[in-house]
Design goal:
The complex is a heterodimer. By secondary structure, chain A is of the alpha/beta class. Chain A has 5 domains: 55 residues, no CATH class; 91 residues, 3-Layer(aba) Sandwich (Glutaredoxin), CATH 3.40.30.10; 216 residues, NADH-ubiquinone oxidoreductase 51kDa subunit (Rossmann fold, 3-Layer(aba) Sandwich); 76 residues, Ubiquitin-like (UB roll) (Roll); 84 residues, NADH-ubiquinone oxidoreductase 51kDa subunit, iron-sulphur binding domain (de novo design (two linked rop proteins)). Chain A contains 24 helices and 15 strands. A 6-stranded mixed beta sheet of chain A has the order 6-12-11-15-13-14. Chain A has a 5-stranded mixed beta sheet with strand order 2-3-1-4-5, covered by helices on one side. A 4-stranded parallel beta sheet of chain A has the order 9-8-7-10, with helices on both faces. The radius of gyration of chain A is 25 Å and the shape is globular. Chain A starts with a helix and ends in a 6-residue tail after the last helix. Chain B is of the alpha+beta class. Chain B has a 5-stranded mixed beta sheet, sandwiched between helices. Chain B has a 3-stranded antiparallel beta sheet with strand order 6-7-10. The two termini of chain B are 29 Å apart. Classes of the chains: A alpha/beta, B alpha+beta.
Chain lengths: 600, 231
């Protein structure tokens, strides 16, 4: 294999160990895997041990030590994908390709893998093939795609539909992905010429004045945690450090969420401007856009937008004519790890390491990337701050409700007539939202993805706001034909088992136990005490370090709270204890081998 | 002189220097908090979660959180102790810990904690995972069955260039601690002994030196773990 390619990837990133992720991603792309030889060379050049290199490789879903095939298919196995026919698509892939998921064909041509939500919930079933997005898959399309692969066709030329609307069909993107913007507000509206704030307003304002304006808007972080943005900037501004960083969190890994993908496609200039404004106010010289690997198809497009921004002096030296204000942005890709959406795990990942969350304190605003003060903001948050600077904090705080100001971009999918992106003011009720997207006969909604809650009709009058129903913006709607426990809760539980970083004991070892208990109940062997166990065990999740650990049992805990009858109707009645162990089944293989018939 | 701050542990008034971690502050007041992934002289990381306390009504690990002025810490309560016992039980069921057959029995911190917290039968189902023993290295054995993934070896054992001899592999329930194929074979006697010493269980064992301490003279044979603290 090409040692030269490995060497050149290492050279490209100046033998810098904090760029290990980039080096690995580059080699993976060129060679479909990272060979023993490649790992050895990297370890030598970067002065790391081999196990140190391997610990990073083995952490990320899209990095591998074995070849993943010339064509590597990652089919989304999320709840929404399965609702839209993902299972039959998966079966067709297995039959046509001739191997099971997790394997590569003997000739090394096609590798078949599954992956968690790829941010296409409004156009499922979808897959990534060599980084290119394929949407609306059907058995017919699968057969066609596999035929094309056997014929050696270029992945970029396999699409049969028109390219997606608006920027998706721009020359740097060439993608079939749909935007499905169903409703726009300040973030998504088309009436602003990006760069205006940097050129006209910023030179008139001190960093402190910018922070004051953002604070007066009362905007809170749109990733889900809801920390006041202005306050975060102020903490970072006041923190001691020679160098400061602004990182945009575009990891968007919460299944059912896809709003950032649309913003990145349609409003990247707004995002860059938001990062520049944040950089100016906190005193940063470097911005990093941490983009999930699933969105790698946006790379050339976004690089080009950055290039144009540099040409217009919206990035670079003395930006907007402000003497001494130097700021630039680089893109850092993740490599497939939900946990990297957690800000401290994200920072670890940007440093080239496993995405394990850090202990806090210290918080990133004091000690973040390379131990320097760092602000991590969501895509939507940064875009919103541009409009706050444009129209004023007072204007922004007049939108929404008094305590939850502004708008929220929602990602809505599942059983509704118009799945897509909706920018709405805070304060709508769930019923409003269902009416807006054309949903009737709704059995349940997963609000905020697997880490959020599964709620039923009795909660549909709840309001979208920080004091009631907080969300990062994902709604997955289920009608009465859906089996919530089997097809939703179990899938989400599997998701958390797969995505736990493995550091905290309760997170890594409780999640499989939750799944076993759920399967016991689903197989009809559950008793009332099993439900009590689930409830009690759930309390232990609160001692985990990070948000993933805290919420990993939420699919079970919130469905148990809101849909207890679904569990109860599966229980064995009148029984106090049931092991769930089937002796007959357990010994059947030995019985067959010895031709003995057991007497139970 | 450093600032002195006041805080309470289970209602008892205590003092500590500002900036002290809860764990140390509590220990200085002669009160026991169980620890497992923590190791003297190594930067704490709070991954086993066994030192969890409730500080100002928030669950947090004592080994990583600084004590604050006026902080109210709950340590020896039924809620916290049950969390700790659960963590011990989880470690037993997620791995393969057969104490009677383990040469670290009596010196194993996990076993000693199980005794101290009076674990009889874990409430969780044993997972009996299939795990390997790595015997490729001249000075040490790495038994994955007994590894509790506390990272003590990862954080402590570095070669002269600061490279890690041990590192995590994988993630989630399948996470393992692997030994570097190159550095593992070059391990000095001193580092090998250190690796064995930092391992709280019997996952890193010296080769050709079994059962060094007779049963009856082992660390936890006479007194429970944490007996150096009065409360």
């Amino acid at each position: 294999m090409g040692n030269n390619k490995v060497q050149s990837a290492i050279r490209k990133y100046n033998q810098d160990k904090t760029r290990l992720m980039d080096i690995l991603i580059e080699i993976q792309k060129d060679e479909n895997h990272i060979s023993d030889e490649a790992a050895r060379i990297i370890s030598e050049k970067l002065e790391l041990s081999i196990v140190d290199v391997e610990q990073t490789i083995s952490f990320y879903h899209f990095l591998s030590r074995e070849s993943q095939g010339k064509y590597t298919i990652y089919l989304n196995n999320s709840v929404v994908s399965n609702m839209m026919g993902g299972k039959i698509v998966a079966e067709t892939f297995e039959n046509e390709v001739g191997c099971k998921f997790g394997k590569v064909t003997d000739d090394g041509l096609i590798g078949l893998f599954d992956t968690a939500c790829i941010g296409m919930s409004d156009q499922e079933p979808a897959a990534l093939i060599n980084g290119n997005v394929f949407i609306h898959l059907t058995p017919f399309r699968v057969k066609e795609i596999v035929r094309d692969m056997r014929a050696g066709k270029d992945v970029k030329k396999m699409h049969t539909s028109y390219l997606g609307g608006s920027q998706n069909k721009s020359e740097y993107l060439n993608s079939v992905v749909r935007n499905n913007i169903m409703r726009m507000g300040p973030v998504l509206s088309d009436d602003y010429n990006p760069g205006t704030i940097i050129m006209k307003n910023l030179p008139q304002l001190t960093p402190e004045q910018v922070i004051e304006e953002v604070k007066s808007s009362n905007i809170r972080g749109r990733g889900g945690a809801g920390f006041p943005t202005g306050l975060k900037w102020e903490f970072c501004r006041k923190a001691k450090g020679d160098k400061k960083y602004i990182i945009c969190n575009a990891d968007e890994g919460e299944p059912g969420t896809f709003k950032d993908r649309v913003i990145l496609t349609e409003k990247p200039k707004l995002l860059i401007e938001g990062m520049v404004i944040a950089g100016y106010s906190i005193g940063a010289t470097e911005g990093i856009l941490y983009l999930r690997f699933e969105y790698k198809y946006l790379e050339h497009y976004l690089e080009n937008v950055l290039k144009e921004a540099r040409e217009k002096n919206l990035l670079g030296k003395d930006i907007g004519g402000i003497k001494g204000f130097h700021f630039d942005i680089r893109i850092q890709f993740g490599a497939g790890a939900y946990i990297c959406g957690e800000e401290s795990a994200l920072i670890e990942s940007v440093e080239g390491k496993r995405g394990e969350p850090r202990d806090r304190p210290p918080f990133p605003v004091e000690k973040g990337y390379n131990d320097c003060p760092t602000v991590v903001n969501n895509v939507e948050t940064l875009c919103s701050t541009v409009k706050i600077m444009l129209n004023g904090g007072e204007w922004y705080s007049s939108l929404g409700t008094p305590e939850s100001t502004g708008t929220k971009v929602l990602s809505i999918s599942g059983d509704c007539r118009y799945p897509g992106i909706y920018e709405v003011e805070w304060g709508l009720t769930i019923t409003d939202i269902l009416d807006m997207v054309g949903s009737t006969d709704v059995q349940a909604i997963q609000v905020g993805g697997p880490s959020g809650s599964l709620i039923g009709p009795e909660e549909f009058e709840r309001k979208l706001c920080y004091s009631d129903l907080v969300t990062g913006g994902s709604f997955i709607i289920f009608n009465y034909n859906r089996d919530l426990l089997k097809n939703v809760v179990l899938n989400f539980t599997d998701f958390f088992i797969e995505e736990s970083c493995g550091s905290c004991v309760p997170c890594r070892s409780m999640t499989p136990l939750f799944k076993q208990k759920l399967e016991k109940i689903l197989s009809g062997n559950g008793v009332a005490s099993d439900l009590e166990d689930l409830k009690n065990w759930g309390k232990l999740m609160k001692i985990n370090r990070c948000g993933l650990g805290h919420t990993a049992a939420n699919p079970i805990l919130t469905s148990l709270k809101n849909f207890k009858y679904l569990y109860e109707e599966k229980l064995e009645r009148g029984k106090e204890y049931e092991t769930g162990f089937n002796l007959e089944q357990a010994v059947s293989e030995s019985c067959e081998a010895t031709t003995r018939v057991p007497e139970f | 002189m450093a600032d002195i701050i006041n805080f309470t542990i289970d209602g008892k008034e205590c003092v500590a220097e500002k900036g002290t971690l809860i764990l140390q502050a509590v220990q200085e007041n002669d009160i026991y908090i169980p620890t497992l992934c923590n190791y003297k002289g190594v930067k704490p990381q709070g991954s086993c979660r066994i030192c969890t306390v409730r500080a100002n009504d928030r669950l947090t690990t004592a080994c990583t959180t600084p004590v604050g002025d006026g902080m109210e810490i709950e340590n020896d309560t039924s809620e916290i102790n049950d969390f700790r016992k659960s963590v011990i039980e989880l470690l037993f069921v997620e791995g393969n810990h057969f104490c009677p057959a383990c040469e670290m029995s009596g010196e194993c911190e996990l076993q000693a904690l199980a005794y101290r917290f009076q674990m009889m039968v874990p409430r969780f189902t044993y997972q009996f995972p299939k795990r390997e023993i790595d015997a490729r290295h001249p000075k040490i054995l790495k038994d994955q069955n007994r590894c509790i993934r506390c990272k003590r070896c990862i954080r402590t054992i570095k070669d002269e260039k600061g490279r890690s001899v041990f590192a995590f592999f994988g993630r989630g329930k399948n996470i393992e601690v692997n030994v570097d194929p190159v550095l593992g074979s070059k391990l000095t006697d001193k580092l090998a002994a250190k690796a064995v010493e930092v391992c709280p269980v019997g996952s890193i064992l010296p080769r050709e030196k079994g059962f060094r301490t007779p049963i009856g003279q082992r660390k936890f044979d006479h007194e429970p773990i944490g007996s150096e603290y009065k409360h």
